[in-house]
């Protein structure tokens, strides 16, 4: 009986050992499948992140191009306004100078009104020479002021 119980024990150990090996093999396969699935999810997540970053780079490049264009247009507008401003300053200086000269003439005429009569008034005003002088002064005073931004660059 002893030998039969020993055979049964040995058979039970082998069955138990085979069952444990089978269980370990199943666990190993399950872990391997789980690891593969986890790696697949990780690759998918990484690819999605890469795609999102690529889309963001493209969007930022487009925005950058638009900003560069806007800055260029604004710079051109600024340069145009600056040139116009320079012309206006030159015209202001010229007109101020003319006004000062006219005020000096008026002051001189007011101070010397008794010494030197106005040649444009009085009985001689019908004289051809006086009329010509009057016309020339009128045309000279009504000349437009011409200035350009090119002249101010030197």
SS content category:
mainly alpha
SSE order in H/E notation?
HH
Could you tell me the mean pLDDT?
80
What portion of residues is helical? over 70%
Tell me about the biggest sheet? none
- Give the strand content: under 5%
Shape descriptor reads rod-shaped
Low-confidence stretches: none
Number of strands: 0
Task: Give the C-alpha Rg.
Answer: 52 Å
Number of helices, where a helix is a run of at least 4 consecutive DSSP H or I residues: 2
Q: Termini separation (Å)? A: 127 Å
Topology:
Layout: H1 2-111, H2 128-141
Describe this structure in words.
With 154 residues, this protein is mostly helical. The chain contains 2 helices and no strands. It has helices at residues 2-111, 128-141.
Entry summary:
The chain has two helices and no strands. It is mainly α and 154 residues long. The longest helix has 110 residues.
Key attributes of the depicted protein:
rod-shaped, 2 helices, 154 residues, mainly alpha
